[in-house]
Amino acid sequence: MNDAIRPLGPPVDPSPAHPPGPATMAGRFGSVARLDAARDAAMLWQSIGRHGDIWTYISTSGPFAGEHAFTAWLVERESSNDPYFYTVRDNGGRALGILAMIAIRPPMRVIEVGHIVYSLTLQRTQLATETQYLLARYVFETLGYRRYEWKCDALNEASTRAALRYGFVFEGVFRQHMITKGRNRDTAWFSMLDSEWPLRKRNFERWLAPENFDGDGRQKVSLAVLNEQNKPGRRA
Fold this sequence. Notes:
Number of helices: 6
Strand content: 25-35%
Strand order of the largest sheet: 1-2-3-4-5-6-8-7
Number of strands: 8
Largest sheet: 8 strands, mixed
Distance between the termini: 41 Å
CATH topology: Aminopeptidase
Number of domains: 1
CATH superfamily: Gcn5-related N-acetyltransferase (GNAT)
Shape: globular
CATH architecture: 3-Layer(aba) Sandwich
CATH class: Alpha Beta
Order of helices and strands: EEHHEEEHEHEEHH
């Protein structure tokens, strides 16, 4: 076959993206900042470290034998550039969770969010959603990535629901992808592309807007509905 007529993908700017750095991303409900083990360890032990059940689907870490082991793990995580860890704090400065940028490939402009561990206090809150908005905005608008990934154990129904709610697109399951803590893991893959981000951003901002909540803090329009209405290939 003549090379001149073989199908090829569209041209792409080959400039690499930037690696994540010690940025502080502030929102209305809290902030996301580089993990600081000396500052965060005691609070994170209370909010997430001592609660073994919330580490079930974290493939390589937890639960921990005690606060000392957890603190040592945090110190090690702080020195890592991939994964690159951040702490989630509320407006009172309480450290309520962690997450990381992982599988960082600047030349391909691909990056993943993972190691997401939210305290019970943080789960299902406006700050939990705002955190994902702040990170996605940082990934696409500041660092210049074109593909943002989310992966989870295919049995982790909460993570699957969250990925879809945030506007990630399900791509499939890698069967027998990993052995984690002595068990098989099939991994579900999701992604968000730079071309999809402007619409996802509008949906996040519409959901987070004060007028989307009543006097008791109940949402009027869900983020899942906003993103379902505006799926790729579906008219908004």
